[in-house]
Fold this sequence. Notes:
By secondary structure, the chain is α/β, with parallel strands linked by helices. The chain is built from 11 helices and 14 strands.
Amino acid sequence: MPTRKPLQGPIIGDQRQGALRVVGLFAGIGGLELGLKAAGHSVEIVAENDPVASLVLARRFPDVVNLGDITRIGKLPECDVLACGFPCQDLSPAGGTAGIHGPKSGLVSHVLHLVHAARRKPKWMCFENVPFLLSLKRGAGMRYLTRKIEEAGYTWAYRVIDSRAFGLAQRRRRIFLLASRVEDPSEFLFSDVGASREPEWVPDTPCGFYWTEGNRGVGWAVDATPPLKGTSGVGIASPPAIWRSGSRDFVTPTIEDAEALQGFRRGWTAFSSEEAVADRLRWRLVGNAVSVPAAGWVGRILAGQSVQRRPEAKELDAAHPWPIAGYGGKNRRCKVEVSEWPGRKAYVGLSEFLSDAAPPLSLRAASGFLSRLERSGLRVPPEFTRDLRDFVARQGATANGWGDERADEPNARARQSAGKSSAVSSVS
């Protein structure tokens, strides 16, 4: 098979106008900060407590100070933009749904306290999290967040964004909330409204799904993966599976594929052999990261490259459910009809992100998922079920079955870099 050529040009252009000083809290491996930097802003300080993520930050942002534990910061550093992709574990359907006051997501309260107490407050704040924040406990988390933002003297606007809008083959919907003391964020965030380009399945189109599910849902995504996750509840890496109907097989992305699907350069979280960081830890870091090109889009907005009048809006009462896009301030809420797909980036298919030697889904995973799927009665294309049954039969007929697959995993990971060193050129 010929080696596929990498896409040409960066996902995000490097703009040098309207540069702002950025402080990034809960920085992780720097996805939000990297996107803002690529849009021309200056990342000056980060705060990240995770030791493995901190190693990545030290390598990729060598001149940026890491303040570490957010709870030990006594005073907010002066900045123009405060970027905050705060923990989502208590706000996600896959987590404990404890809400915004849970043990992990509740750490955002420290950020809000620092902002409220700051003598010189940031001009802008940017928060990123999962859309379930809008509906969990009837939107209590969103009410808390916007109320605290308003009490600090800010107006706000938010929008649910799908990462596929920026050329990534990952269906990853996230809230981006902008708040400002000096501008009307509703005149920034809803510009370049875009339109959905949801792909439809036709024969030979790859589809991503969660092989760990099968009773309640499969996370089905046409020509994309479902949202990348960190690890399972017991700390095991759980990359999505991909059905390649053309070759009637089932594979999983490598960790380098996952980095590309988040908009990072391949090898962004790689460590030397002496450091010996397990792939499951890299999966946790990548799965919890902010998609880089989505952050870059926000960065270009903050640079003033897309200011325009906001779309028509409808005022909502306090009891109304939170829409997917809106703005407000001073106890006022408005709904905006806008797409989750800003920009006009050409859709990039999943095949462009997969290594040529993507490892097959294991027999244990495939047979377990097939059993759950058949018991559940969930609707999937009949071709999918047929191919999965045949795949399990072929894998089971292998001389040593599961043992052979496990033994070959190191070789599969080594082979992947030879066929495709970079599926997508991205910022570095």
